[in-house]
Amino acid sequence: MRTNIEINDDLMDQAMKSGAFKTKKDAVEAGLRLLARQAAYREILALRGKLRWEDAPRAAELILNEPATGHPVRLNEALSAKPGMP
């Protein structure tokens, strides 16, 4: 999706250097992935004491292997799906 936004030049330079990104798009996408991953981690923390131990590897797999869609994973929904289904 094409989106035009104004980004602080100093912040973009800092991000590009810190991640050794080749393009601004790569830096922005990495930042968006980080935000989505942090939201998933918060969701995992909210499940503390509610997740069965045997579901833990699947939850970790869902977090570490981002879906191709780029959308954050909803762990409650994903864990209740049939095994082998994303």
UniProtKB/TrEMBL annotation:
Query: Which Pfam family is one of this chain's hits?
Result: VapB_antitoxin
Xref: InterPro entries: VapB_antitoxin
What name appears for this protein in its UniProt entry? Answer: Type II toxin-antitoxin system VapB family antitoxin
Q: Which organism is it from?
A: Roseateles albus
Q: What is the lineage of its organism?
A: Bacteria, Pseudomonadati, Pseudomonadota, Betaproteobacteria, Burkholderiales
